[in-house]
């Protein structure tokens, strides 16, 4: 039996914590997964997994095999990628994490361009709100959008700065009035993003910087949900320009507080500190950096529409 394939199956079972979930991820039957793991255990002469009705756990021997096996697989992928890259276009699968709104509005367009350039690469885009474990979720890269990154265990490369804007629908402004200063936001119905502003504070640049505690009738960890609430006239929301540029252009949302610039967000690409990055992932990283050197309009404050 193929030793490398058995290691791949074993590491996927450990990552998924389940033979059934690993079978789904690898498009194999549960019986085939079980056969590969059993063969690996027989060849090692040791039990590698403790099995229960609900989950699997590593034995001490399994932990050793998992650690060494992951390094072996990464090294093999690197060798394979180097050889293929010398004579062919890179190929293989990449898993990329992204905040849902950025993924829908912008990353998918970039991935379509990337896979057109490299048709032998298959990209899987998955939701990452900034709290996913890259290793546990088997993410090669992830886009993190925040004012600062909390996890220092990953390598982070800044792609762009993403300006933000406070917005509201015309019907809300007709009913409740338009805030004249950032301090006025404390008296308005504000729609709070529970991940980006979990403390209910919106921050604005200035000398000194301003912090305004806001509250309102709608809170969500989904930026699109808050945008939809704002479009319905439910209140004022704070978004990156990339999320609302079309609505601002159409007039269904209006930009507020032209003299007050909300704290911008950093758009970073992060990855684990693996020593041997596969060639296909390196190509995607370089593609994203190439894209960032020609910033889109929404990343350029001078071109953004203000109310």
Helices and strands, with pairings:
Elements: H1 3-16, H2 19-26, H3 30-44, E1 49-51, E2 56-58, H4 60-87, E3 92-98, H5 100-117, E4 121-127, E5 141-146, E6 155-162, E7 164-168, H6 170-176, E8 190-193, E9 201-204, E10 210-213, E11 219-220, H7 223-231, E12 236-240, H8 241-250, E13 254-255, E14 265-271, H9 279-292
Parallel strand pairs: 3-4, 3-5, 8-11, 8-12
Antiparallel strand pairs: 1-2, 5-14, 6-14, 7-12, 7-13, 9-10
Helix pairs in contact: 1-2, 1-3, 1-4, 2-3
Gist?
The protein is of the alpha/beta class and 307 residues long. Helices cover 40% and strands 22% of the residues.
What is the straight-line distance between the termini?
66 Å
Count of extended strands = 14
Tell me the fraction of residues in β-strands, as a range. Answer: 15-25%
Helix content: 40-55%
* Helix and strand sequence: HHHEEHEHEEEEHEEEEHEHEEH
* Regions with little confidence, pLDDT below 50 for 5+ residues: 303-307
The number of distinct helices, counting runs of at least 4 residues, comes to: 9
Radius of gyration: 24 Å
Question: What would your notes on this structure say?
Answer:
With 307 residues, the protein is of the alpha/beta class. 40% of the residues lie in helices and 22% in strands. It has helices spanning 3-16, 19-26, 30-44, 60-87, 100-117, 170-176, 223-231, 241-250, 279-292, and strands at residues 49-51, 56-58, 92-98, 121-127, 141-146, 155-162, 164-168, 190-193, 201-204, 210-213, 219-220, 236-240, 254-255, 265-271. Strands 4-3-5-14-6 form a five-stranded mixed β-sheet, covered by helices on one side. Strands 11-8-12-7-13 form a five-stranded mixed β-sheet. The protein has a two-stranded antiparallel sheet with strand order 1-2. Helix 5 links the parallel strand 3 (92-98) and strand 4. Helix 2 crosses helix 3. The longest helix has 28 residues, at 60-87. Residues 303-307 have low confidence and may be disordered.
């Amino acid at each position: 039996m193929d030793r490398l394939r058995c290691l791949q199956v074993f590491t996927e079972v450990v990552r998924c914590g389940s033979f059934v979930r690993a079978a789904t991820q690898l498009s194999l039957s549960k019986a085939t997964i079980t056969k590969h793991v059993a063969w690996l255990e027989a060849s090692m002469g040791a039990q590698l997994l403790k099995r229960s009705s609900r989950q699997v756990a590593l034995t001490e021997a399994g932990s050793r095999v998992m650690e060494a096996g992951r390094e072996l697989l990464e090294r093999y992928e690197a060798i394979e990628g180097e050889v293929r890259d010398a004579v062919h276009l890179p190929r293989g699968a990449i898993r990329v994490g992204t905040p849902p709104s950025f993924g829908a509005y912008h990353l998918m367009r970039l991935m379509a361009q990337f896979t057109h350039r490299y048709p032998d690469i298959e990209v899987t885009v998955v939701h990452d709100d900034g709290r996913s474990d890259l290793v546990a979720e088997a993410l090669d890269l992830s886009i993190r959008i925040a004012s600062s990154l909390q996890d220092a265990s990953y390598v982070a490369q800044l792609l762009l700065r993403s300006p933000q804007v406070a917005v509201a629908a015309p019907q809300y402004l007709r009913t409740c009035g338009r805030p004249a200063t950032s301090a006025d936001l404390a008296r308005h119905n504000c729609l709070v993003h529970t991940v980006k502003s979990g403390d209910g504070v919106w921050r604005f640049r200035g000398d000194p910087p301003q912090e305004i505690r806001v509250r309102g009738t709608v809170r969500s960890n989904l930026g699109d949900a808050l945008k939809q609430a704002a479009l319905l006239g439910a209140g004022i929301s704070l978004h990156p320009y990339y999320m609302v540029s079309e609505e601002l252009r159409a007039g269904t949302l209006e930009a507020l507080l032209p003299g007050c610039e909300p704290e911008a967000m950093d758009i970073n690409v992060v990855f684990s500190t693996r020593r041997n990055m596969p060639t296909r992932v390196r190509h995607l990283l370089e593609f994203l950096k190439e894209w960032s050197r020609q910033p889109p309009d929404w990343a350029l404050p001078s071109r953004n529409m203000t109310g």
